[in-house]
Amino acid sequence: MINQDNIIIKTTEFVKEKLASDSSGHDWWHVHRVWKTAVYIGEKEEVDLAIVQLAALLHDIADWKFYNGDTTVGPQMAAEWLGSLHVEVPIIEHVCEIIQDVSFKGAGVPTAMKTKEGMVVQDADRLDAIGAIGIARTFAYGGTKGHPIHTPLIGPELHQSFEDYQSSEGSVINHFYEKLLLLKGRMNTETAKKLADSRHRYMELFLEQFFHEWNFCSAGHHSELPISPAK
Ligand code: NI
């Protein structure tokens, strides 16, 4: 690749501008964290770090969640961008394949990556979907999409197809069971598995506390609380 550093710098500027106004948790700082985490993991693996960096930087350039479920827009936009920088075709194809395959598509849908570079980027993206940051992003995303925080009468659903997962309108709390708590078991690299442990535990603690507070109110343990008219 001609002048690799320059291409990466230009790509950071391109992505920063594209995602400047995002408030769904898929903003530039998400991409920045995924990029840096991917480099951290990638340095411990035998991978092409230029591919890893370009795929990490461009992985959310046009997420299907914001393009009516169309998974082809992201890779297309990335291909056009890299083409404009005269990046070689095999590199563009590899980066676009990673962008196409990287995202979670439902509890029962396998999302195996074809290359080591793809595995690294997927791990980095998934690490940013769990832990304290994952919790913050999940609620931000739910707010953007108009999803309720918690619906005690409607439980989680383990989606068996990408179509079902895409059309899910479930609560944010259900999303923990439908995706976030499953990610630890779906990490590709040993480095990511280690990093996932404490983040996973933190989400479990958060849910424990969330339900503790929720149940405290709904069980009416606190005598000063007004009795819910729904009872
Ligand atoms: Ni992402």
Task: Please provide a written account of the structure.
- The protein contains ten helices and no strands.
- By secondary structure, it is mainly α.
- Helices cover 58% and strands 0% of the residues.
- It is globular.
- The chain has one domain (4-216): Hypothetical protein af1432 (Orthogonal Bundle).
- The chain has helices spanning 4-18, 28-42, 49-58, 73-84, 89-101, 116-127, 131-145, 162-166, 172-178, 190-218.
- Helix 1 runs parallel beside helix 3 (49-58) and helix 3 packs across helix 5.
- It binds nickel (II) ion.
- Nickel (II) ion binds at residues 26, 30, 34, 59-60, 125.
CATH topology label: Hypothetical protein af1432
The helix/strand class is: mainly alpha
Reported for the largest beta sheet, the result is: none
Ligands present? nickel (II) ion
Low-confidence stretches: 223-231
Mean pLDDT: 90
Instruction: Give the number of domains.
Output: 1
Give the topology string: H per helix, E per strand. HHHHHHHHHH
Strand content: under 5%
- The strand count comes to 0
Detail the topology: elements first, then pairings:
Elements: H1 4-18, H2 28-42, H3 49-58, H4 73-84, H5 89-101, H6 116-127, H7 131-145, H8 162-166, H9 172-178, H10 190-218
Helix pairs in contact: 1-3, 2-3, 2-6, 3-5, 3-6, 4-5, 5-6, 6-10
Quick structural gist:
The chain is an all-alpha fold and 231 residues long. It has a single domain (4-216), classed as Hypothetical protein af1432, CATH 1.10.3210.50. It has 10 helices and no strands.
